[in-house]
Write a structure and sequence with these properties.
With about 950 residues, the protein is an alpha+beta fold. Among the domains are: about 5-150, 3-Layer(aba) Sandwich (Rossmann fold); about 150-315, no CATH class; about 320-460, Pseudouridine synthase, CATH 3.30.2350.10; about 525-605, no CATH class; about 895-955. It has 30 helices and 46 strands. Strands 7, 8, 9, 10, 11, 14, 15, 16, 17, 21, 24, 25 and 26 form a 13-stranded mixed β-sheet that branches. A seven-stranded mixed β-sheet has the order 2-1-5-4-3-6-27, with helices on both faces. Helix 3 crosses helix 23. It is globular, with a radius of gyration of 32 Å. Mean pLDDT is about 75; it is low at about 1-35, about 140-230, about 255-270, about 360-365, about 390-400, about 480-490 and about 545-565. Keywords: ATP-binding, Biotin, Ligase, Nucleotide-binding. GO terms for molecular function: acetyl-CoA carboxylase activity; ATP binding; metal ion binding; pseudouridine synthase activity; RNA binding. Pfam families: Biotin_carb_C (PF02785), Biotin_carb_N (PF00289), CPSase_L_D2 (PF02786), PseudoU_synth_2 (PF00849). One of its GO terms (biological process) is pseudouridine synthesis.
Length: about 950
């Protein structure tokens, strides 16, 4: 075995198995550490990275490890200078993933979707610390998995000596789903079971009537948010006595009481208690803790009287540590970041169910209760994501609507040390920072009636002594990460790694957050004087200081930097159909009023609360990219670019470089614009500035800046000679761009020297080669390129001097359901585009993949021969048009053609012999057959020649 196996259960306990050969490999690595340190010192770097965690799988991990090993071998004469630790799921192990073989060690992580493993920030950081790595390489793809997603659910039982992971059984979840399907007939049982959750569309009759009479869809959303909610009830954890469940906001734990009698506030209202009766197999469920109607999160339920009684006593004795998350108004004092204790006394008020803080001696003679709440600020920002219309005075003609702009808000962690009713809400309101959406204590405009669509209070964690250990259960919050920020990329990984002293091989957290949002990225591009597509934010600019603080270029005064961000950001958004029409007319969009209203309504309801902007559609465009690099000293450069216009449903199929479709002077300006944007934001590492280019007008517009290395980076490597993953590594070690040998060589400087290069003032020598690439995916071209999974028996590909490939599967491997469909990448190089195209087609024709999966290799071969591709007259919609018109029929697999031909030939041979025998008998002739003749009718050989290859079969009758 080459690797070390490190298994991490869901409790993150681990063990090591190190072979003797591995120990020797590690010893060899230790002997070669000094050359790396010497290299970093000579290149004027800041830190030495000897051990790297690859927090990705598939093609990303394969290419990263191979590229960095190649660099260390060329530079130091050894592949073992750097140790690579990979993360691997059981699915990856079963599929014999190639990256596991390439790594020095691997850590087994939970299977399933990437939020459980390769996009789980907490898990990555924990493994990085435990493995004592110097840096984390995230690759590509996992950043996407973090967009707007919550962290994976974790269960942990802590003991004095060692950890123990408890796995969620299917029993409670299955009973919950089946019980719900019986209790609520409108829910489709198959869909419920398939999704492993229970969804209830809470559509009340009077809300439907309101919808019929409502004149404004936007108004309806604001007045009756329940219409658009799907309540999700999840079973989180269970043992023989307890069950942990997630209660959504807006669901009651029990039926309300009125005059001592239970009643349902709404028709057919469902409570958590109703569901739990089904879960507990007929026995009466006993809730150990309760949550308010508007509070979401974790609840414990006793499945038996004994277990419920034991757990309830723990709550009464205050032996349960309860942790909540709350979104509060304003920015509390700095002291709250280290944690404070609020100790206001609480008393009842005259209003039903209301509570208030009080002095020790209440003047009205009411009983007061001592109460303590621990509070800590986790994050500061702005809320809501966009201005909204707050409605006052009811829903009739007398109501008033006021536009509310985003104001400072904070995410806080709250732990009540006592158990008083409404304690958290009362204490936070008394401290001047009420919970947003709290009708009782926040007041207008921060309650539900003022425009907030829910109360932002969530029961996050429960920790209690249970069965001679400490049980800790967590229910992730679905709004804590995305409610304050406008980032589609997840900047938490570089931020958390920085906190624990581990280098992130990629851009800083703040830069990633800014570039991950379409509105913010376009404003930054305009600030860098990069042409943008006409949109609702035309002309808006901002400036990024060295400290990463954003300011507008307009003369605003006495406004904090955070609010200035919102001012610029909000000016780019459209909030109503009328505003969209006004922006469209101003920019000159050809828009149909009726279609715009429908589109705006669809977008408004698809992601509630998300900012909306208007952008002109660009047709007949090419997708061109500029490969950029930046270091921590403010240097930036462009390494030519790529043409990625061959796309299917916005997924790249072919890539090539350099982009010969663009005029040289225009392409030079595209590079300079990309460098200006990179320098403006203080970008660090490798990234890609993407443009839409019009061959008709020879103009380009900014699309986005991808803050990571992309899968097609070998195209750039082949035409520039720069090893991209190795360059990323050297930038992460604090080596300036002008001191990296590959870059100096590409720009025509002595690679052994270290001297300053002004990349804005000098140009690199002309590119004298062309590279074409093709992605190999597990997709079925006969069924609209539907992803497939299964075993791969073999992949036969012969690399040559002008063509090479990468594959993420090993011998007798496979593609599992959670893996990326791309498992291979073929590259071909030539002196010009036509030579590279021919080499790529020849390489694909000689690629042989056998197994259960389907792949479009034959289709790609035909695609390379089309007139449009050969003449380079395609655009981004070209391939989708071909597929829709079926201009190219998907090629049948070679073995399928041969097999069907053999079957037909065998059938024809049997039919011919049978007809000969019948004809002889009709003539009165009886042919006596010997044993060899009868055997020939039962079993006989069939030979087929196809594509200059001979195939032999044995047919049996």
């Amino acid at each position: 075995m080459r690797f070390t196996r490190v298994c991490v259960a869901e409790a993150f306990s681990q063990f090591f198995v190190v072979t003797s050969s591995q120990q020797q490999a590690f010893a060899g690595t230790a002997m070669n550490l000094n050359p790396l340190a010497t290299y970093v010192k000579e290149r004027q770097g800041k830190r030495v990275i000897r051990k790297i965690l690859i927090s990705n799988n598939g093609m990303a991990a394969v290419k990263a490890i191979l590229s960095m090993r190649r660099w260390t071998f060329i530079e130091f004469g050894s592949e073992q200078v750097i140790t690579f630790v990979a993360m691997a799921t059981q699915d990856d192990l079963n599929a014999n993933a190639e990256f596991i073989r390439l790594a020095d060690a691997f850590v087994e992580v939970p299977s399933g979707k990437n939020v459980n493993n390769y996009a789980n920030v907490d898990l990555i950081c924990k493994i990085a610390q435990e493995q004592q790595v110097d840096a984390v390489w995230p690759g590509w793809g996992s950043g996407d998995g973090c967009k707007g997603s919550t962290l994976a659910l974790r269960f942990q039982v802590e003991e004095a000596c060692a950890g123990w992971g408890c796995r969620l059984t299917d029993k409670g979840l299955r009973l919950l789903n089946q019980g719900l399907a019986r209790l609520w007939p409108r829910v489709d049982e198959d869909r419920v079971l398939e999704d492993a959750e229970a969804r209830i569309a809470q559509l009340q009759h009077f809300h439907r009537e309101a919808a019929m009479s409502s004149s404004s869809f936007t108004e309806l959303c604001a007045r009756f948010p329940e219409i658009f909610l799907d309540y999700t009830v999840k079973a989180l954890w269970e043992d023989d006595g307890l069950l942990a469940v997630h209660k959504p906001w807006g669901m009651r734990a029990y039926l309300a009481r009125k005059d001592g009698e239970k009643y349902r506030a709404w028709p057919e209202e469902l409570t958590a208690h109703d569901l739990l009766q089904e879960i507990c197999e007929g026995s009466r469920p006993r809730m150990c803790n309760r949550l308010d109607f508007a509070t979401s999160g974790l609840m414990l339920v006793g499945k038996s009287r004994k277990a419920a009684g034991k757990a309830s006593r723990l709550f009464q004795q205050r032996r349960v540590l309860k942790t909540y998350l709350a979104l509060v108004l304003g920015h509390p004092p700095a002291s709250w970041e280290k944690g404070v204790v609020l100790n206001y006394r609480i008393t009842d008020t005259a209003g039903f169910g209301r509570r208030a803080v009080s002095s020790m001696e209440d003047t009205a003679g009411r009983t007061t209760e001592t109460a303590e709440t621990s509070v800590r600020v986790l994050k500061r920002g702005l809320w809501p994501p966009k201005p909204w219309q707050a409605s006052f005075g009811g829903c009739g003609e007398g109501s008033q609507e006021v536009t509310r702009e985003p104001l400072p808000a904070s995410l806080v962690e709250v732990s009540p040390k006592t158990g008083r009713r409404h304690q958290i809400r009362v204490h936070l309101a008394a401290a001047g920072h009420p919970v947003l959406g709290d009708d009782s204590y926040a007041g207008q405009p921060w309650g539900l009636r003022g425009g907030c669509h829910r109360m932002f209070l969530h029961s996050w964690k429960l920790q209690l002594p249970w069965k001679d250990s400490v049980l800790s259960v967590e229910d992730p919050c679905d709004w804590s990460d995305g409610q304050l920020l406008h980032a589609s990329e997840n900047p938490k990984l570089p931020a958390k790694l920085k906190e624990i002293g581990i280098t992130f091989i990629g851009p800083p957290s703040g830069v990633m957050a800014a570039l991950g949002d379409k509105i913010a990225a376009n404003i930054l591009a305009q600030t860098a004087k990069v042409p943008s597509i006409p949109w609702s934010g035309d002309g808006l600019t901002c400036q990024l200081t060295a400290e990463g603080r954003v300011y507008t270029l307009e003369p605003e005064t006495d406004v904090s930097p955070g609010v200035l961000i919102a001012i610029v950001f909000n000016k780019a958004m459209v909030r109503t159909v009328e505003e969209a029409m006004e922006r469209a007319e101003k920019v000159g969009f050809p828009i149909m009023v009726k279609e715009l209203k429908v589109a705006f309504t669809n977008v408004y309801t698809e992601v509630p609360g998300s900012p909306i902007f208007l952008m002109q559609m660009v047709s007949k465009a090419r997708h061109l990219e500029i490969q950029i690099l930046g270091d921590e000293y403010g240097n930036t450069l462009a390494l030519n670019g790529r043409d990625c216009s061959t796309q299917r449903r916005f997924q790249k199929i072919f890539e090539e470089g350099p982009p010969v479709i663009a005029k040289p002077d225009v392409f030079h300006e595209m590079e300079r614009a990309a460098m200006r944007l990179t320098a403006l934001v203080g970008y660090r590492g490798a990234g890609t500035v993407e443009y839409l280019y019009s061959p008709e007008t020879h103009t380009f517009c900014f699309l986005e800046l991808n803050p990571r290395l992309q899968v097609e980076h070998p195209v750039t490597e082949s035409i520039t000679g720069v090893n991209m993953p190795a360059t990323q590594l050297q930038i992460a070690m604090g080596i300036a761009l002008h001191n990296i040998p590959d870059i100096r060589r590409f720009y025509g400087y002595d690679p052994t020297e270290c001297s300053k290069i002004d990349f804005f003032a000098v140009d690199y020598p002309p590119i004298t080669a062309h590279c074409c690439a093709s992605r190999i995916t597990a997709e079925n071209p006969d069924e609209g390129f539907k992803p497939t999974s299964g075993k791969i028996n073999s992949v036969r590909f012969q690399s040559a001097g002008d063509c090479w490939g990468y594959f993420s599967v090993g011998l007798k491997g496979g593609i599992h359901e959670f893996a990326d469909s791309q498992f291979g990448h073929i590259f071909a190089k030539g002196p010009n585009r036509e030579a590279a195209r021919k080499s790529l087609r020849f390489a694909l024709m000689n690629l042989d993949i056998s197994g259960d999966i389907r792949h479009p290799v034959d289709y790609l071969v035909d695609l390379l021969e089309t007139k449009s591709y050969k003449e380079n007259t395609i655009d981004t919609m070209w391939l989708d048009g071909l597929i829709a018109s079926k201009a190219i029929a998907p090629s049948t697999a070679v073995m399928d053609v041969v097999f069907y031909a053999a079957v037909y030939r065998a059938f024809s041979m049997v039919k011919a012999r049978t007809q000969d025998a019948i004809a002889s008998m009709q003539k009165g002739q009886l042919v006596l057959l010997g044993k060899s003749d009868t055997d020939a009718l039962v079993s006989f050989p069939v030979e087929i020649t196809f594509d200059e290859k001979k195939f032999s079969f044995q047919a049996f009758g």
